[in-house]
Amino acid sequence: MDAHNTEAFRKHIRQYLGVFVALLVGTVLTVAVSYVHFGAEDSHVGNVTVALIIAALKAALVAGFFMHLVSEKRSIYTMLATTGVFFVALIALTVFSFYDSPGSHDALTRTPAAKEAVAHGH
Amino acid sequence: MDIPYTVQPRPDTGLYNAKVGIWLFLASEVMLFGALFSSYILLRIGSPDWLYGSEKHLNVPIGTFNTAVLITSSITMVMAWASLKLRDFDKYKLYLGLTVLLGLVFMVVKGFEYRDKFAHGLFPSTHTFYAIYFTLTGLHALHVLGGMAMNAYLWGPGSKMWQTDPERLTNRVEVSGLFWHFVDLVWIFLFPVLYLL
Fold first, then answer.
1. What is the per-residue pLDDT for A122?
2. Residues of chain A with pLDDT under 50
3. Among partner residues A59, A79, A90, which is closest to B34 by beta-carbon distance?
4. B188 interfaces chain A, CB cutoff of 8 Å
5. What is the CA radius of gyration of chain A?
6. What is the pTM of this model?
7. Which value, in Å, is the radius of gyration of the alpha carbons in chain B?
8. Does A74 contact B185 at a Cβ distance shorter than 8 Å?
9. Mean pLDDT over all residues of chain B?
10. Complex ipTM, two decimals?
11. Are B95 and B77 in contact (CB under 8 A)?
């Protein structure tokens, strides 16, 4: 590695350190927002959404910089895009199959009364 | 016969072979954890008495600490690879050694957490939540162990390659690092999903 490349590489290292700090801040933020309730009173959808957005941003930092995906070859992107399609299909099919069952359509925002009814088999 | 394209990129992929191999493996890992995450979703939305917050008896500060440990191990891992790129073998040994140690810290903390659960009579059979909690964290812990074994080899006997084929060792460390970062990435989702939501 010549002097010019060494200097360019050191710039990458500073980037890695920046990502490290951002990940630690993200972790603190994840815990902090878990003590705040988002959305409807008896629903967890708001908190799940916020937590998953922060987790996705942190994951993007790890994948993008530590795993070098910001400057990777096309063949890797193709491979990961294919995986992404199958991953989304896997999750979606599972959720669709659940909501295809009678009486389960309101499960995500289940109220205490509905919970009671489910528990008693009504 | 020598293994081809361990250092030079293969003309059609533009990558050395091990890198294509590890990404294919990681793609299969995404599907493995994807299947378990979809199981988690199904169990959670289908459960009439899911556990929330303090009902889970999980220690959030300890989980947060372990998250910070894994994130720190990711930066030491990438610094180990960067040190080889900068031809600084001593720093490579330091950073990779730290990565293995941080992996060990994570496992010890996880072990204490498991011991605490068992001591309080909380087993996978206790509740649907604990069934998926132990499955997800147990599988993740096995991955941490696997990554630690690979990194320990590259820190110890595997590092002798620095004398004979430094570029190839650098690529091996990059591949091992990709796996290690993936393990960190999975935990980034596991932590909020299991401890906080």
1. 46
2. 108-109, 118, 122
3. A90
4. yes
5. 21
6. 0.90
7. 19
8. no
9. 94
10. 0.91
11. yes
Q: Which residues contact A40 (CB under 8 A, 6 or more apart)?
A: A46, A109
Q: Measured between alpha carbons, how far is A101 from A98 in angstroms, rounded to an integer?
A: 6
A118 close contact with B: CB closer than 8 A = yes
B127 sits in the region (left: phi over 0; alpha: psi -120 to 50; else beta) called beta
pLDDT digits (tens, 9 = 90+) for A44-69: 888 899 999 999 999 999 999 999 99
Distance CA A64, CA B5 (A): 25
Q: Where are the alpha helices (DSSP H) in A34-73?
A: 45-61
Rounded to 10 degrees, the C-alpha dihedral A66/A55/A105/A121 comes to 110
Name residues 42-71 of chain A within 8 A of B (Cβ).
44, 47-48, 51-52, 54-55, 58-59, 62-63, 66-67
- Single out the residue of B188, B34, B40, B38 nearest to residue A51, CA to CA: B188
Q: Does A87 lie at the interface with B, CB-CB under 8 angstroms?
A: yes
Please report how many Cα atoms fall inside a 13 Å half-sphere around the Cα of residue B3, on the Cβ side: 7
Contacts of residue A97, Cβ cutoff 8 Å, sequence gap at least 6: none
